[in-house]
């Protein structure tokens, strides 16, 4: 019996690793232990609930206004005491401190590591900060690299990483399709905050922004764009689940409260988020996961970043890279709002991040290799 340990700390890691854990647990000759590092505790609990499972080990690392050094040090020390001695494999995902530290500890202990969502690169180690460093660092020690796309595999090849690279799609698509197929009802909170959910004439727009690179000037400029569009376009309803990060939360709540067609909400459960996405005409977002999931649900994304390590959806024509300039956001929004033919073309393209089978492929590969 093999023992695989999944280490995760944030909401997107839970969304992208729990489908893999479910696939692994279907196998007879493997058992898994899920360790939650506690990096973003509150946002993660909901995801476990949605997938109907719980973490096996929970670390308590969350501190108010935690520094990067503080998180990294606490997760490394906490994990060191808890990583099971008999682990045959450590699995990490993406680009967080938890992923970096999980792979580092596996390296220290001589345990092989598998990296899910390997090969995403911006090319600038300072942006996104610190994610670009984290994912590059994981690639140095990982033995298996599960790249979501050929582009990501090409990024690894450019760094000399050729062995055990498997292009499987992104597990975010497995998660989104699995949960959407359950057709779970929206929460009472969402129903009350967004009565337009059942009004087929209302045009809904999903908004989200939380990247560190947008703190300060970027978020101010995004807020100015949303305020201007909302005032000029009362035919649209804007739904913004505001990230709890203090650099975002305060300024968004202060600047956009009391505008009738802007609904500022607490972070949505994953199921509610998918319901809003399915109901949205378009999304304005800097989120990586939303850029990947939205093409499944006919929801073009205007990407609120200067660059993205997800060029596939831009190249395919599902999403548009807009940046954070107020005028550019307003122009791109109006164009897509008014040009229904463009909107239809953008929503008819196959999702370049996969078809919902990434977790099964990863589980099969690992079972035959470890
Ligand atoms: C630099 C970069 O791009 N890094 C990414 C970053 O993740 P991100 O940018 O995707 O992070 P978020 O936007 O926080 O999460 C998104 C998920 O959360 C769901 N959601 C959202 C709002 C809400 O109210 N309720 C929800 O349920 C949503 O549907 C989606 O699935 O780290 C990951 C981990 O390593 C990486 O994979 C990934 O590269």
Jot down its keywords.
globular, 47% helix, 370 residues, seven-stranded parallel beta sheet, EC 5.1.3.14, alpha/beta, binds ligand UD9
**Helical run tally:** 16
Strands of the widest sheet, in order across it, are 3-2-1-4-5-6-7
Distance between the termini: 11 Å
Main β sheet profile: 7 strands, parallel
Global outline = globular
What is the N-to-C order of secondary-structure elements (H for helix, E for strand)? Answer: EHEHEHEHEHEHEHHEHEHEHEHEHEHHH
Helical content class: 40-55%
Number of strands: 13
Distinct small molecules bound, one entry per kind: the ligand CC(=O)N[C@@H]1[C@@H](OP(=O)(O)OP(=O)(O)OC[C@H]2O[C@@H](n3ccc(=O)[nH]c3=O)[C@H](O)[C@@H]2O)O[C@H](CO)[C@@H](O)[C@@H]1O
What is the average per-residue confidence, as pLDDT, rounded to a whole number?
A: 96
Structural class: alpha/beta
Q: If you had to describe this structure to a student in words, what would you say it looks like?
A:
The chain is α/β, with parallel strands linked by helices and 370 residues long. The protein has 16 helices and 13 strands. It has a seven-stranded parallel beta sheet, sandwiched between helices. α1 packs parallel to α2, α1 (11-25) crosses α16 and α9 runs parallel beside α10. 49% of the residues are buried. The mean pLDDT is 96.
